[in-house]
Design a protein that fits this description.
The protein has 262 residues and is α+β, with helices and mostly antiparallel strands. It has helices at 3-13, 16-26, 35-42, 59-63, 110-113, 164-169, 173-176; strands at 80-82, 87-94, 99-103, 106-109, 127-132, 140-142, 147-155, 179-185, 190-196, 204-206, 213-214, 219-223, 228-233, 238-240, 249-250, 255-259. The strands form 4 sheets. It has an 8-stranded antiparallel sheet with strand order 11-7-8-9-13-5-2-15, with no helix packed on it.
Length: 262
């Protein structure tokens, strides 16, 4: 099939109601029977899950599973920023005059990613990561830093796929999809954690209760099916780990880089 045909199918399936219907089934008890096949298809290590696979009430319950304690240790050096998720790096680099350049061939403005927030000015020449979570990955999102939640915003939008095809062939999906944006204040500066919804993601949920102050590695939110987190660092705040590059895979709690004033 041609690329235009796939794009048309994606456009038609990007309506929120499609993901809502899919999500309703994934939350139903009837979906339990699909958990073993789902885990086998995507190579998910069920032995890492907090509970036995038979104890999950639905496919969604399994998908948003916690892991056994100790499987994602948090980097011990407090001067280091840690990955909020298990993911592949699909974008990394300096923000230049408010522009993120060439994420799978497309450019994004910080202004559109942050829904024209007044805080946009803080990130004009900062640093960014785009972290893609596949269905295989652990889907809970943790805080990359210790700090206070300054502000949060839920941005309604589409649910285009954020995989290779979606990022490359659909128009600026990271800034058109549904997003939960959390601004966190560290003593060094401010970090924006942008959680981007995707095809078949019925919702992005904050943990409850959501604390005002977060510790590095503390749970912040979770995806219902695969998606992407965009991390934005304020100007003159952050230096990445030198070996990280496009295609690198990281685990939650792994070192991403250091604060510049330490």
């Amino acid at each position: 099939m041609s690329k235009p045909f796939f794009k048309l199918l994606t456009e038609l399936s990007s309506r929120k109601w499609v993901s809502q219907v899919t999500g309703a089934f994934a939350r139903s008890r009837a979906s339990r029977m699909f958990i073993p096949r789902f885990a086998q298809t995507y190579g998910i290590r069920i032995e890492d899950a907090e509970k036995h696979v038979k104890d999950y009430k639905s496919l969604n319950d399994f998908f948003t599973r916690r892991l056994k304690p100790g499987l994602r240790p948090i980097h011990e050096d407090e001067t280091r920023v840690v990955s909020p998720v298990d993911a592949m790096i699909t974008g990394i680099g300096d923000i230049k005059d408010g522009l993120i350049v060439n994420v799978k061939g497309q450019d994004y403005t910080i202004e559109e990613l942050l829904n024209r927030s007044p805080r946009t000015v803080n990130y004009k020449n900062g640093f960014y990561f785009v972290l893609y979570l596949s269905p295989t990955d652990y889907h809970r999102i943790h805080s990359p830093i210790s700090g206070d939640i300054l502000e949060k915003e839920h941005v309604l939008g589409k649910v285009y796929p954020v995989n290779e095809f979606g990022l490359r062939h659909m128009k600026r999906v990271l800034s058109r999809n549904e997003r939960l944006i959390t601004f966190i204040q560290h003593h060094t500066g401010e970090v924006a954690v942008v959680k981007v919804g995707a095809l078949n993601v019925s919702s992005i949920q904050y943990v409850k209760p959501l604390p005002k102050t977060l510790e590095r590695g503390q749970e912040l939110a979770y995806f219902e099916f695969g998606s992407t987190v965009v991390l934005l660092f304020e100007d003159d705040m952050f230096e990445p780990r030198p070996d990280l590059k496009l295609g690198s895979k990281v685990k939650m709690g792994e070192d991403l880089g250091r604060f510049l004033d330490t």
